Amino acid sequence: MYVRIANADDAKYSELLCEWYEESARMRKTGIAKRNPVYLERKMRNGNAVIAFDDDDQVAGFSYIETYEEEKFVVNSGLIVRTDLRSSGIGKEIKQAVFKLSRTKFPNSKVFSITTSLAVMRMNTKLGYKPVTFSELTQSDEFWNGCKSCKNYHILMDNDRERCICTGLVYDNLDDDYAKEARKQKNDNSDNE
Fold first, then answer.
1. What InterPro entries does the entry give (predicted)?
2. What pLDDT sits at residue 102?
3. I need a surface site. Which of 6, 53, 125, 146 has the fewest CB within 10 A?
4. Higher pLDDT among residues 6 and 176, named by residue
5. Are 110 and 89 in contact (CB under 8 A)?
6. CA distance 171 to 131
7. Which of 80, 78, 75, 95 is closest to 143 using CA atoms?
8. What is the spatial distance between Cα 118 and Cα 96, in angstroms, rounded to a whole number?
9. CA gap 186, 50 in Å, rounded
10. Which of 19, 92, 82, 24 is CA-nearest to residue 54?
11. What is the per-residue pLDDT for 2?
């Protein structure tokens, strides 16, 4: 299995991935926001997603990033793994890759995630995320509007977007090795121009 940054050629998988999200929501009986294939395709074309493949070159998993508040925050979102590969370790590889993408592409941004998944909470914690109240996450209406398709959206709104069933997690070490390397490369590139 391998994980890489997604690109425009991967857009052909967007409908399949959206089906996986819906099936996962049904299986887990928890809220998962619906995704639109066009939205996922845009993530792939912009290099704001990672995709995994099994040894037969069949899609195995996916995740993407989005920025808010003029890149003050970057969310790692949409982690999905093909059902027969869950517990194989590929989810952890995808999570690490999307985290690295976030830190290198947006080294000055706090990284956050909201989830109901214990496995995702554990992965985030190992990467250095800390649980926080929703007040410490982006306050962007665009982000929170993405929750509208979740079956628990009414809980979020009943609580004035301060809490829900999801747990909010933030990584805010803006001086980690990924960020240092990204800043160094940016400085090296500007020196060469």
1. Acyl_CoA_acyltransferase
2. 96
3. 125
4. 6
5. no
6. 9
7. 75
8. 16
9. 22
10. 82
11. 94
